[in-house]
Amino acid sequence: MPININSNLPAAKVLAQEGIFTMPFERAERQDIRPLRIAILNIMPTKEQTETQLMRLLANSPLQIEIVLLHPATHVSKNTPIEHLNAFYQTFEDIKHQKFDGLIITGAPVEQIPFEHVTYWKELEEIMEWSRTNVYSTMHICWAAQAGLYYHYGIPKYPLEQKLSGIYLHKRTDHNSPLMRGFDDVFWAPHSRHSYVKMSDVQKNPELNILCEFGEDGLYLVSAKRGRQIFVTGHPEYDANTLKTEYVRDLAKGLDVPMPAHYFTDNDPKKPPLVRWRGHANLLFNNWLNYYVYQETPYDLQAIQNEE
């Protein structure tokens, strides 16, 4: 089944070229079916690119999904035209009286800034609090995972000595979670960030379950009870060239950043990236949609409530 999106959205054209079935809102409204309502709070600077990346993963499912794009009203985007935001996005004020099956909060390049100093932090706090009673399952990606763990559970983030960038091998540590069904014991996933959350801090909280880890103190997937909150510390949605684009951009700015690890063929930046995370990225989003959104959300969205 398709994702329901505005047919004029640039992502719709890209997905159509890739053979991914999308359905205009006008046609979806004539079908006697309740699609899953998924809101995406997009706080990445490259919003159009992130839209396409996430919709590509959400569309790889037999479920029909209605996408609602959100952006922070308290932040002026420097990289996305205001015409694009006005045409395709809403703000929290527009939808705060609605309920959703799922919510995705993207990452943002603000890991080196204290949470409270981020310009839209107060608005994000309001949205995360609202999600507890108006969204059945929320997926937090990269910086949003750190922000969510901090807001909901008081878990801090810590600075890294240098940027973590590359494709890393992860170990599955939970064999019972539905989110991990079909996962290999080890798998690859992208990371791109300047801060991290300590595994020991998460382990102290009985409400949280670590599903995957990497390295000595690296977290990748953390789940709250019943999957109402999912925290993904990496960027499974990244395209083949996203890390390369970031690396070239940072070098052009004169930044001292490491070459993305385990990424370029033969570790040579002149050669193309070796994509080896796409299968598990699709599996992660499919499992989330199936086991934590579709099978758990009440048919009547008004029945969603906080479990506490």
UniProtKB/TrEMBL annotation:
Active site: 142, 235, 237
Phylogenetic classification of the source organism: Bacteria, Bacillati, Bacillota, Clostridia, Christensenellales
Keyword line: Acyltransferase, Amino-acid biosynthesis, Cytoplasm, Methionine biosynthesis, Transferase
Binding residues for substrate: 163, 192, 249
Name used for this protein in its record: Homoserine O-acetyltransferase
Function description: Transfers an acetyl group from acetyl-CoA to L-homoserine, forming acetyl-L-homoserine.
Entry GO MF terms: homoserine O-acetyltransferase activity; homoserine O-succinyltransferase activity
Catalysed reaction equations from the record: L-homoserine + acetyl-CoA = O-acetyl-L-homoserine + CoA
EC number: 2.3.1.31
Originating species: Christensenella massiliensis
Subcellular location: Cytoplasm
Site location (Important for acyl-CoA specificity): 111
Involved pathway(s): Amino-acid biosynthesis; L-methionine biosynthesis via de novo pathway; O-acetyl-L-homoserine from L-homoserine: step 1/1
Family: Belongs to the MetA family.
Positions marked as site (Important for substrate specificity): 192
Predominant subcellular localization, coarse grouping: cytoplasm
EC supergroup of this enzyme: transferase
Keyword Kinase: no
HAMAP family on file: MetA_acyltransf
